[in-house]
Design brief:
Blueprint: H1 4-35, H2 42-59, H3 64-90, H4 95-117, E1 132-135, E2 138-141, H5 142-164, H6 166-176, H7 178-183, H8 188-213, H9 218-223, H10 225-234, H11 240-256, H12 264-267, H13 270-294
Antiparallel strand pairs: 1-2
Helix pairs in contact: 1-5, 1-6, 1-8, 1-10, 1-11, 2-3, 2-4, 2-8, 3-8, 5-6, 6-8, 10-11, 10-13
């Protein structure tokens, strides 16, 4: 068993990854609550934006700042277009059909990335990763700080937005009862479009951060959304604050297992195991509460 000193660098890595998982998780939950769509293409959208930024910097002579902005905006535009084009036809469909439809988008984007950029190893070095500070003899770079800090900022800001703004109130109303909200005169399509756009912007930001934290690989970035999905399942696709906490736990567990289980296929099971345990516990608690009321 490794010593605590061996685990310390992985605590920092886990907090940073957990922060990015939280960004993705907040976007997934807000979109699901507003539209009923579980967006499985979240990771692929971010991966495509990150590769596009890499292309602009390394082959088109762009400076880093504008290229990073393009990455984030790409996520917003693609997700918004998908929502505008396919959201209305899918609105009355089963949630499983909606999720499978976004899986189709993920596969299309993944195929396009493989065709355009092939599978060669690449790296996205953000300027913030070259600078940092030491905490207890562990080097912490500013990309890791930004990932964790941005997750806190986005979670709190989103919570306040949903609670205190008209658009946020409309999103919460859609989550509670879609038909009644529409009859009250709420512009449902506009509210849904705002949810798609905001979710896409978070996908672009998460893809940019992950491309630096774990490497710029299309398949890896596409399927890392599984960890974020695990966090949202633990939160039962409801609370963004529970999603944030769950995402940090998933990131920490996944990172801290690394010194123990070097074989990646076992380490990558951690999000599924945590989600399964949480769902079983929550289901058991709910069943006990129901039995108590019935008695």
């Amino acid at each position: 068993m490794p010593s605590f000193e061996d685990f310390k660098p992985f605590i920092v890595t886990g907090l940073a990854l957990g922060g990015v998982y939280a960004l993705q998780g907040v976007g997934i939950v807000v979109l699901y609550r507003a539209t009923g769509v579980l967006n499985l293409a979240f990771g692929a959208v971010g991966a495509f934006g990150a590769l596009l930024a890499w292309q602009l910097i390394n082959h088109n002579g762009w400076s880093q700042g504008p290229a990073y902005i393009v990455c984030i905006l790409f996520g917003g535009v693609v997700t918004l277009l998908y929502g505008v084009l396919f959201g209305p036809p899918l609105a009355a469909r089963d949630p499983l059909v909606k999720a499978v439809a976004t899986l189709g988008l993920a596969l299309i984007l993944l195929g396009a990335m493989s065709w355009i950029w092939s599978d060669k190893a690449r790296s996205m070095i953000l300027p913030t990763s070259n600078h940092g500070f030491e905490v207890s003899n562990v080097l912490v770079n500013y990309t890791q700080v930004i990932a964790f800090g941005l997750a806190i900022l986005i979670t709190v800001t989103t919570g306040l937005f949903l609670r205190f703004t008209n658009l946020g109130t409309a999103m919460r109303a859609l989550a509670n009862d879609r038909e009644i909200t529409a009859t009250l005169g709420v512009p449902v399509r506009r509210v849904e479009a705002a949810a798609w756009l905001g979710s896409g912007l978070l996908a672009g930001a998460a893809g940019l951060l992950l491309s630096n934290l774990v490497g710029l690989d299309a398949a890896t970035l596409t399927f890392l959304v599984i960890s974020s999905l695990a966090a949202t399942l633990i939160a039962r696709l409801r609370s963004i604050y529970v999603t944030f906490i769950a995402a940090i736990v998933v990131g920490l567990v996944n990172a801290l297992i690394t010194p123990i289980l070097s074989i990646s296929q076992y380490r990558d099971m951690a999000p599924f195991v945590l989600a399964t345990i949480a769902l079983l516990v929550l289901s058991g608690t709910k069943a006990e509460a129901f039995s108590g009321r019935a008695g």
